[in-house]
Amino acid sequence: QVQLVESGGGSVQAGGSLRLSCAASGFTFSIYSMGWFRQAPGKEREGVARINAAGGRTYYADSVKGRFTISRDNARNTLYLQMNSLRPEDTAMYYCATSSWYRSGLAEGDFGYWGPGTQVSVSS
To answer: How far apart are the C-alpha atoms of 45 and 106, rounded to whole Å?
Structure first.
């Protein structure tokens, strides 16, 4: 069965960096688009970044553009999110998710399977 497991979350000070990983199994990772989403307490889940199956096309939310980088290693069935210059407003639970197609945008309806999430907390 499809399994996505995020890791790499933690607590950092503003301006710091974290790298999230999403280990995928149970499906052919290399043919799926992937995305990262986040949900802060009391807020709706929002899209962060998206990458196509081959890794050559990416899309970012305006709020993270220039600070976060999504990438993937299809040989290791792993998705990454490098987060630099972190801000307190980046504090959230971060989720990875699969999509059968790629397009510019971060609509939740495009994504089918989700991981349980990893917590990121940024203090000022």
So the answer is: 11
